[in-house]
Amino acid sequence: MAQLIKLQDYISRYQIDLTRYPTQYVRLKRTQWEKVKQQWLTGEEPLSWEHIEEEQSNRFSFIKKWFNQKRIKEQEDIESVDVSHEAMSDEEGEVDEESTLYFEPHIVYHPDSIEELKRMFLDQFFHFQIKWASSTLLEKSYVDPRFFRDSFLRTVLQRLPDNYLVFYYPVIKIKKAPIELDVIILTPTECLCITLVEEEESAVYVGDGERFWTKKVGKRSEKMLNPFIQLNRMEAIVSQLFNKHQVDFPIRKILLSRNGYFDYSLTPFNVQIIDKRGYTTWLQQLKFSPSPLKKMQLQAAHAILNNVETTSHSRDILNTQNLEQ
């Protein structure tokens, strides 16, 4: 599962320590997967999934029953990815009981197969990931519920390996002005800037102008802003941040539609256009990366994190508000 480094303008623990948390994330996920798998193999049937959250010196726990009624078509071997870095010692990778959010899974019912168990675990861990990526020991951000239902975010995090770092519509400060970018994925070898174009099912996006394109749905046609404008702006900002922090990391631009088609005859340099016809193949190719987390990849992440906008609240304030409600 790829690591969600920054979600919009929410607080991120990776801003505090980008060296420590990638390894801790992998250890946490693997430990809990082994635990729930062992429970399944031995026939244990715990009653619920349990989350335990450590907030300073107080521990809060709650029980939540969770029933999975939809099957995820894509399956991921969550044990197949290894993450290592010379700057990460074993001590740095250990879970710190005083400063992190815990994920303690227990299966609701006894699945019929290991693959069904994996799907249950991945769905539960996806929700945990969003909380993990939007909180620290002292601060927390209000997460828009739509992100928990975001199918592309779920696909990216569940299908891509642990050594991929994801910025999902991050808000960047440029000359004190906040600018929301699209999706940025840092693989061990390159930076992928992705602009997602998804509207009506099987819509056709015709690249017939510099400023505006034409979107065709059946017999209906309408103008739309050229998506390359947003994609090029994102690439220019990321390139500027890399140059500012002396980061030498290649950038590739991707125009993506999972449910539509692009009609564009001349593909610009360093741009990959992927639509419904090639999406599955592209995603399948992207998920295989034998290379571990790289030093330059972390430096690229630092360059972006050093310029993000953050909106958060003290956990004490949040707890006080909850008590007053």
Characteristic terms for this protein:
alpha/beta, 8 helices, globular
Provide a compact summary of the structure.
With 325 residues, this protein is of the alpha/beta class. The protein is 31% helix and 24% strand.
Count of DSSP H/I helices: 8
Nearest-integer average pLDDT = 81
Low-confidence stretches: 47-100
Amino- and carboxy-terminal Cα gap? 36 Å
Q: Could you explain how this protein is built, in words?
A:
With 325 residues, the chain is of the alpha/beta class. Helices cover 31% and strands 24% of the residues. The protein has 8 helices and 17 strands. It has helices at residues 21-41, 90-93, 114-132, 151-159, 227-244, 279-286, 295-305, 315-324; strands at 3-7, 49-55, 58-64, 101-104, 139-140, 165-168, 171-174, 177-180, 183-186, 191-196, 204-206, 212-217, 220-225, 251-256, 261-263, 271-274, 313-314. The strands form 5 sheets. Strands 1-6-9-10-14-16 form a 6-stranded mixed sheet, sandwiched between helices. A 4-stranded mixed sheet has the order 13-12-11-15, with no helix packed on it. The protein has a 3-stranded antiparallel sheet with strand order 3-2-4. Helix 1 (21-41) runs antiparallel to helix 3 (114-132).
Q: Which helices and strands appear, and what pairs or packs with what?
A:
Blueprint lengths: L2 E5 L13 H21 L7 E7 L2 E7 L25 H4 L7 E4 L9 H19 L6 E2 L10 H9 L5 E4 L2 E4 L2 E4 L2 E4 L4 E6 L7 E3 L5 E6 L2 E6 L1 H18 L6 E6 L4 E3 L7 E4 L4 H8 L8 H11 L7 E2 H10 L1
Parallel strand pairs: 1-6, 10-14, 11-15, 14-16
Antiparallel strand pairs: 2-3, 2-4, 5-17, 6-9, 7-8, 9-10, 11-12, 12-13
